[in-house]
């Protein structure tokens, strides 16, 4: 990797120092004070992060600004500011970190790698890949889409992240439940998940059966292991097998056979659909875990992928 003393790293380091001061000020003044700040105040720190080559941090601050009036804002503030502080502290020590973790920090901050460079520099991981889940959204004028793939032989996940401006179509459409014979090239870092698709062709053969976590305990253990490798991990993909969906006091949960539960994210329409489809019976599903809540993306019925 290029020396961490180059101009870009120095600029990012200055931004990390300013980010840490902003977090500490927010803690001293209280989350309520931060919540009440006008958009212009939020936009100012976000712009300074952009100027410091920390585009990802800037985007997350703008998202936090737009979500600060949600009911769960205290938990949201706590989690995001804790992540920001961890990032700032780690970046100040970047020279002493192992190279894969340096790469991870640069990506978390906003370093971009061109697709062609990634295809040339990162080895291809060839397998048959199942499009297992997909979610999308919009931030200002930019649409984004996350598509999750599962490798048949390698038994690993890959995240393909696509962006499009306003109504511009995405470069490639991925059909949920489809199987492709493909080369995936993963971004550098620790516990790599994000990847780009190289050469690929649709596969007409069925995908071999795969197993998921049978209980919340085994999922938590796997998540803990992944987090120990990459402390900046924000999304952990999971397949859950034999979980029931329940509603208790206006909150939805995924319940395993041992009566341990995982809290579902606040997406009423999706959760009601999931509850109706399960009809009180254990089901298999694919979801994103953020450390506190589960975001279900698809039901799995006899290897058929049903989008939620």
Task: Describe the model.
The protein has 308 residues and is of the alpha+beta class. The protein has three domains: 7-109; 115-202; 216-307, OB fold (Dihydrolipoamide Acetyltransferase, E2P) (Beta Barrel), CATH 2.40.50. Helix content is 38%, strand content 29%. The strands form two sheets. Strands 8-7-6-9-10-11 form a six-stranded antiparallel β-sheet. The chain has a five-stranded antiparallel β-sheet with strand order 3-2-1-4-5, with helices on one face. The longest helix has 23 residues, at 7-29. The protein is globular and about 50 Å long. The termini are far apart.
Keywords:
308 residues; alpha+beta; OB fold (Dihydrolipoamide Acetyltransferase, E2P); 3 domains; six-stranded antiparallel beta sheet; five-stranded antiparallel beta sheet; 9 helices; 11 strands; 29% strand
Q: What's a concise summary of this model?
A:
This protein is an alpha+beta fold and 308 residues long.
